[in-house]
Amino acid sequence: MSEPTPESVRPAYRRVLLKLSGESFTRPGQTGISMEEVSKVAAQAKRVADRGVELAIVVGGGNIIRGAHFSRAGEIVTQATAHYMGMLATVLNGLALQDALEHLKVPTRLQTAIRMEGVAEPYIRRRCVRHLEKGRIVILAAGTGNPFVTTDTAAALRAKEIEAQILLKATRVDGVYSADPEANPHAMLYDRLGYEQVLRDNLQVMDMTATGMCMDNHLPILVFNFTKEGNIERAIAGERIGTLVGEPRR
Fold this sequence. Notes:
- Helix 6 runs antiparallel to helix 7 (208-216).
- The protein has helices at residues 35-50, 67-70, 79-103, 125-133, 151-161, 195-201, 208-216, 231-236; strands at residues 15-20, 54-59, 108-112, 121-122, 137-141, 166-171, 192-194, 221-225, 243-246.
- The chain is built from 8 helices and 9 strands.
- By secondary structure, the protein is α/β, with parallel strands linked by helices.
- A 9-stranded mixed beta sheet has the order 4-3-5-2-1-6-8-9-7, sandwiched between helices.
């Protein structure tokens, strides 16, 4: 008897928030936007939406500029300005993903935490939820609109606001390891972690503020490799992939 495909398994979640880092929008080791890579993400997102799952996506901008790193280049650009530049970079990625989704005939809305009505809707929680209820994928850009706040924290905040059942952290590795798997071939891949262990061991699942927010609100985090075909659907189907961060086993 053949194993069920991701498409044949009933989704385990009704509403999810997917966090895509800037590296999702470009080829490994490169910068800028690769529409080939964006189209791959869009195709997976479409299959999720086609199964009736309400999907919100928070996008990063590190493929274009990392505000925290840019500000270290000198004192000409202040840290606050560099962070705003990073937030604007997420809007560029959001626009690219929106067009890729609409090319696939997927109803989509781009909302930003920094008001720019000529480009996108302002983020309004009730409006975002209404779009999701109508089957639209909502792309959330510009973080929280505040400097010194990461897109990881923005993802945790938005997930709680829209009452998502899980936060999916998409990466290019299979989950959370005990050490850098590229530097240490003996690094162990965790199947499941408690929030407190992540914070205590500084395992870099998300930044500490984001992890703490998820812990306080009992919001599970699934860290998984989105580059493997079908993994986003598998994650939403509740299959055992990646590393699940949540309440410790009793």
